[in-house]
Amino acid sequence: MSDVIPLDVGLLVLRVALGALLAGHGLQKAFGWFRGPGVAAAGALFEQWGFRPGRVMVGLAALCEIVAAVLLVLGLLTPLAGAIVVGTMVVAATPTVVHGLWAARGGYELPLVYAVLGAGLALTGPGGWSLDRHLGIPSTSWAGGAAIVLGLLASLGPLSVRRSTLRQRTPAPAA
Question: Is the pTM of this model over 0.85?
């Protein structure tokens, strides 16, 4: 085991852990697995949060989480996986921002941690034990940075839908 590089082991652990958790979240939404709500209940919640149509947005969120999870676990197209995580988690954090940071108070702590891990993996690359390395796909900090920007830009679509929906719900001030 003398050829094992601790950094590669650490990155593998981070990728697999984040990937497993993201997959679990996606499967909770999509199929109700792991005591999740499933599409109908999650869709109703998404509607309350202003993401419309709720069921479609749940499907998109679940798909993003599952695709990012698979890419992370395999260490394939790691900057793209990081971009998907960042964009999805920025959107996921917005309904809970009003509660502050800490999850114990209903805050955005968990999506923030996932987004930071996704960004970190986009910047560092997947490590030696990955398909990226096996296929010769280079890890560069500029690709990681570009991925983070891409993820942030991708979040703007769902966030603008939410903002528009919430504006429509707010009654106009009395004259």
Answer: yes
